[in-house]
Amino acid sequence: MTRHLLSAATLNHERRPPRARDGLPRSSGSPRRDQAPPAAPVRISVVTATKNSVDTLAECLASVYQQSYVHREHIIIDGGSTDGTLAELEASRAHLDLLISEPDQGIYDALNKGLARASGDVIGFLNSDDLYADPHVLRRIAAAFADPDVEAVYGDLLYVKRRDPGQVIRYWRSCAYSPPLLRMGWMPPHPTLYLRREVFDRIGGFNQAYRIAADYDLMLRLLRQLQGRVVYMPNVMVHMRLGGVSNRSLFNILRKSWEDYRALRANRVGGLVTLAIKNLSKVSQFFRKPAEGLEVAYPSHPALAGRSDTEYSW
């Protein structure tokens, strides 16, 4: 952050503060009676669950603390790692707002612990083997949430090679949300989804009855119960390494499909047809390529419309 230093000469010639109608000086830092005070910056909580993630954790942590948006907190919930993850976390302790390491009942238990401790106005999740696409992702998210009517924000995602995150395998290009899409198997890329904390207060956290698909169940629940606006930002927000729990084995793939089906039925969104469309929709992701120089505009903030990322100055 750039600091502006004022010399003594400048201070001696500083303009006198304006006077109110009663003739008394009025502080230049106080809002006028006919003006609302400026809104406080949106605080974003990023929750990361880790367990034996030493191979990828450093890049994940760096992508958070290198974000240009400073009104944030990073919460780490570690499941009792034994591979050097804790040493990596201790080395980055200055950049972490909260670090808890204790045995848990799985990733969704860890994420629920992070939810319970998050203090931000907005909450999102970054997997320990994933990273933000650029240093301004949280800044763009905060700009969208500056509209108090917005309850959810999401964007696009790249699946990248585990050992070489510069190599793109799949491009998950999303679209603007509408309720009928849910019956077509649509969902936003879950690592890009950010929600106001009031949404979690209203619908709860991850249902730990699901071992692999609790994130899908959460998104179905929230999208059916949202009371505010949903904003889609058409740019890549997260690089997600392949090799997650859901696709590590044939058993996990089958279990994920079964849990997806359970979530669809529990939330009264669809059934086998919806599940089939959902799985088939992934095929096109292998053939898409992200556009270069994609610009971002926020419908709720006309002053930002048409600006590229490099033009933002806050």
What does this structure look like?
The protein has about 325 residues and is an alpha/beta fold. It has a single domain, classed as Spore Coat Polysaccharide Biosynthesis Protein SpsA, Chain A (Alpha-Beta Complex). About 30% of the residues lie in helices and about 20% in strands. The protein is built from nine helices and nine strands. Strands 1, 2, 3, 4, 5, 6, 7, 8 and 9 form a nine-stranded mixed sheet that branches. Helix 3 links the parallel strand 2 (about 70-80) and strand 3. Helix 2 runs parallel beside helix 3 (about 85-90) and helix 7 (about 215-225) runs parallel beside helix 8. It is globular and about 50 Å long.
Strand percentage lies at 15-25%
Task: Give the termini distance in whole angstroms.
Answer: 10 Å
What's the Cα radius of gyration?
Answer: 22 Å
Number of domains: 1
CATH class descriptor name: Alpha Beta
The outline comes out as globular
Q: Main β-sheet, in a few words?
A: 9 strands, mixed
Q: Considering the protein shown, what is the CATH homologous superfamily?
A: Spore Coat Polysaccharide Biosynthesis Protein SpsA, Chain A
**CATH architecture designation:** Alpha-Beta Complex
How large is the count of helical segments? 9
How many strands appear in the DSSP assignment? 9
Mean pLDDT: 81
Series of secondary-structure elements, N-terminal to C-terminal: HEHEHEHEEHEEEHHEHH
Q: Provide the helix percentage.
A: 25-40%
What structural class do you assign from the helix and strand content? alpha/beta
State the low-pLDDT regions, or none.
Answer: 1-31, 293-314
**CATH third-tier fold name:** Spore Coat Polysaccharide Biosynthesis Protein SpsA, Chain A
